[in-house]
Design brief:
The complex is a heterodimer of chains A (411) and B (227). Chain A is an alpha+beta fold and 411 residues long. Chain A contains eleven helices and seven strands. In chain A, the strands form two sheets. Chain A has a five-stranded mixed β-sheet. A two-stranded antiparallel sheet of chain A has the order 1-3. Chain A starts with 5 loop residues before the first helix and ends in a 5-residue tail after the last strand. Chain B is α/β, with parallel strands linked by helices. Chain B has a single domain, classed as Rossmann fold, CATH 3.40.50.300. In chain B, the strands form two sheets. Chain B has a six-stranded mixed β-sheet, with helices on both faces. A four-stranded antiparallel β-sheet of chain B has the order 2-1-4-5, covered by helices on one side. Classes of the chains: A alpha+beta (411), B alpha/beta (227). The interface between A and B is large, with 51 and 50 residues. Strand 6 of chain A pairs antiparallel with strand 9 of chain B, so a sheet runs across the interface.
């Protein structure tokens, strides 16, 4: 123990005070015990002396064995008082009482000493152990603070201190994970920027080319018309990338305030599917809604229809002519599930774990229109509602997307 | 700093001709709060991986560091305590204690460490897991989905560094599976809980942050999903 903490010092002072108080108590106890003993022994001596005074010719043994009368006692008291031998005399003047005092003082003192020695030793060992553990933890924490983020306190044992150390370790893990997370975020941003530039580069290159062609073939109105149509398509594509990215960025930054309210699921889905009706009719595809019209979902209607729209759009894009997209919903005790099922091309096993990645492009899909942001956006929105999105798919048979949401009562 | 670091993990069964490599130089790391799915066909070594990483089985060679501690350098007794405090398990077959009720099953791991359960947290777990009305029920009085929810609560109660879930939906129908997965995912997000989950269905993708694929004892990282 190099330095004792304030708490430890205070505890030792208390212990010492209690020890002294106990010693004082013992002193008082000793005083009363001696007094008591002295009274008894002097009383006895009065009787014996009085008997001898009243019966001067009696034999000495009789003075001890015979019952004493009150007059015996009185006579004894008178006789002995003259010699200064009475019950209130200083105990040191009465040899028997003095011997008793010394004897008892030694016993009680010894007892008190050994009890307090044991207590002090126990406390001392405990404090030493505790100080050692804390000093060790202190060193580790200091090392952690000075940059060695791999440092952890030994906490494999059970006990008060170790569960505290365990919590400190958790804290350390969280701190270093955050630092790591920041690093990852930087890498992620870098990747993101390069993906975005790539996505914009392609339509821009096309636009540049179309513009050159139109400038050269300025006379031919048919060519101009054809290429302005093409330009418009590329511009829409750029627009799509920019707007979707803005939405994702808002969700990522957590700046979006979800204006949640109880929304009827059927109404919500009708709103969504309306947007695709013309498109679906053109390609002879069918969208079917099925589910209990009573079911409602606590969500932000605008964002939720954006998410559902993206899933439905994806389903339509991956079904052929005459395809069918079935949207159903159900309410279980814990969750509300919205299922979007199609009978389209399905998702290849290599792709299935990647479809929610931003800008992911499949090697197997013939679809070239997508920009790879629709499903990631849907996922971000669903997660902002504390929900999950999952997908099951078989190539050639179709895919099934399930959006699950908890019944949130609070928040 | 990663919560879990696996380096060159190997596990072989048998010798010579009959040697089977269940794990073949597997390395990966997991950050705090990640929700990771391990996919692969049956027999590809997924469960062996989870058992070794969860310190239920010893590797032939290689290292596993959880929260920067080399778990196989610990003596057995220390490892038991470490496992209890740092690793939560969720099994396909629930493994609840039949004599204890829902609440007791959830707080049981804490009581093993003589800790007082944080009653507020336990109430919160019961609420989220939808088990508030069933807190005094015995496992035999619950459906499969409910039992698995109790197991999730038990794994979360001790706030472990990492939760290992071995096909948690293997015994459940699709509706209950959906509930269990959604719960795991939202718990991972809410409590920044690291979860390592095995799924067997190749044609299914859950909303995990990252997917690792096991093929014949080898591991391939399929990368991070959208964040």
């Amino acid at each position: 123990m190099k330095t004792m903490g304030k708490e430890t010092r205070r505890m030792l002072c208390w212990l010492l005070a209690i020890c002294l108080a106990a010693a004082a108590g013992l002193g008082i106890l000793l005083f009363y015990m001696t007094n008591d003993f002295q009274k008894t022994i002097v009383e006895h001596d009065y009787g014996t002396a009085g008997y001898l005074v009243n019966h001067p010719d009696a034999n000495v043994a009789a003075a001890f064995t015979k019952d004493k009368t009150d007059s015996d006692l009185e006579a004894g008291r008178q006789a002995l008082k003259e010699a200064g031998y009475h019950e209130n005399a200083d105990p040191r003047l009465i040899p028997a009482a003095y011997a008793y005092l010394k004897h008892t003082a030694a016993w009680l003192g010894g007892m008190l000493f050994s009890i307090f020695l044991a207590v002090f030793l126990t406390v001392w060992i405990y404090i030493r152990k505790q100080n050692k553990a804390i000093a060790k933890a202190d060193i580790v924490i200091t090392r952690f603070l000075s940059g060695d983020t791999g440092q952890r306190i030994d906490s494999e044992e059970t006990g008060d201190w170790y569960s505290l150390f365990h919590r400190i370790n958790e804290l350390a893990a969280i701190l270093s994970a955050q630092a790591e997370h920041e690093k990852q975020t930087r890498v992620f941003l870098q990747d993101m920027i390069s993906d975005v530039s790539h996505q914009l580069k392609t339509p821009l290159a096309a636009l540049k080319m179309y513009d050159e062609i139109m400038a050269q073939e300025g006379m031919d109105s048919e060519t101009i018309h054809a290429f302005s149509q093409k330009s418009l398509r590329e511009i829409r594509r750029v627009e799509d990338v920019v707007y979707t990215l803005l939405k994702i960025a808002k969700l990522d930054a957590g700046t979006v305030r979800m204006e949640k309210a109880e929304e009827n699921v059927e109404m919500l889905l009708k709103d969504v599917t309306e947007r695709f009706e013309t498109l679906a009719a053109q390609e002879a595809k069918e969208i079917v809604l099925s589910g209990n019209s009573e079911v409602s979902l606590y969500c932000d209607a605008l964002w939720m229809s954006e998410a559902l729209g993206n899933v439905v759009k994806n389903a339509l894009e991956h079904t052929g002519k005459g395809g069918k997209v079935v949207i159903s919903w159900e309410r279980t005790p814990l969750l509300t599930n919205i299922v979007v099922e199609d009978n389209g091309t399905g998702i290849h096993q290599e792709d299935i774990h990647n479809i929610f990645k931003r800008f992911y492009r499949s090697r197997f899909s013939q679809d070239t229109h997508g920009i790879g942001l629709g499903l990631p956006l849907a996922k971000s929105i669903v997660e902002a509602h504390q929900g999950t999105i999952s997908v099951t798919s078989r190539v050639g048979r179709g895919s099934r997307f399930v959006l699950s949401f908890f019944h949130l009562t609070k928040e | 700093m990663n919560i879990l670091e696996v380096q060159n993990l190997c596990k072989t069964y048998g010798k010579g001709e009959a040697e089977v490599r269940a794990l073949d130089h597997v390395s990966f790391s997991v950050g705090k709060g990640e929700f990771i799915a391990i996919v692969g066909e049956s027999g590809s070594g997924k469960s062996t991986l989870l058992n070794v990483v969860g310190a239920l089985d010893n590797p032939t060679s290689g290292k596993v560091r959880i929260d920067d501690k080399d778990i196989f350098s610990m003596p057995e007794k220390k490892l038991t305590v470490f496992r209890r405090q740092n690793i939560g398990f969720i099994f396909q077959s629930f493994n609840l204690i039949p004599e204890l009720n829902v609440e007791q099953n959830i707080t049981f791991p804490l009581l093993l460490d003589y800790q007082k359960p944080d009653q507020k947290y336990v109430e919160e777990l019961l609420e989220i897991l939808g088990l508030k009305e069933r807190r005094k029920h015995l496992p035999s009085q619950l459906s499969g989905g409910q039992q698995q929810r109790v197991a999730i609560g038990r794994a979360l109660a001790a706030r472990p560094a990492i939760i290992m879930a071995d096909e948690p939906t293997g015994n459940l129908d699709s509706k209950n599976s959906q509930e269990v997965i959604t719960l795991l995912k939202s718990m991972s997000a809410k409590y920044r809980q690291t979860i390592l989950m095995i799924t067997h269905n190749e044609n299914h993708a859950d909303a995990s942050d990252r997917v690792l694929r096991m093929t014949d004892g080898r591991l391939k990282d399929l990368g991070v999903a959208a964040r």
